[in-house]
Amino acid sequence: MAKEKKEDLRVKRTRKLLSQALLSLIEHHSFHSISVKEICEEAMVHRATFYTHFNDKYDLLAYSLKEMAEEFHFEYSSVEEVHLKLFNVAIKYRRLFSQLFVEERDSLRYLIRKEMTEKMKQQIMSETNTQNIPPSSEVTMAAFVGATLGVLNWWIENDMALSGEEVYNEIKQILNLEHLEKIQDKTIGKE
Fold first, then answer.
1. Which pTM value belongs to this model?
2. Based on the number of CB atoms within 10 Å of its own CB, is 139 exposed (0-12), middle (13-18) or buried (19 or more)?
3. Could you tell me the mean pLDDT of each successive run of 10 residues in the chain, 191 residues long?
């Protein structure tokens, strides 16, 4: 039994070393450019040992992100606490978050988010006849677009059980789209 615990600790230690090595490398390089060899060298672990624990660097990244997510401790948190924890973890792992979000730039989700946000900005600027949108309005637009994409993901995963119009009406109720209209009023008032 003591031998099992010791092996358990060695497994945990090896996984932790590999995870820390990956996160350290991501501080200076894009994830896609990092090789398993570099991870092993950084962790001072043999390549064969790496493959004993992980299938590839994507498997290691998933493990590392799962370990990081445990810092959230969502199960006993209020909605407000969840949001604050998420942003605090993002600050703690700022470079990692930045790298992973930047690397997502070729994804369909990123392109849709960028396009939706840009169209909203253009509409507000043309209707208010201004060139600047306050940061608080930018937050509101990001929340709206992010929520819409999250719901789109849910909708696809649930076999599109509702019509697009039904989903939009639910989003409208939940997000209080009147708040978006108030952004335009605030922007006009600042001229």
1. 0.57
2. exposed
3. 66 94 89 93 96 95 83 65 76 78 69 82 76 79 83 83 82 69 52 42
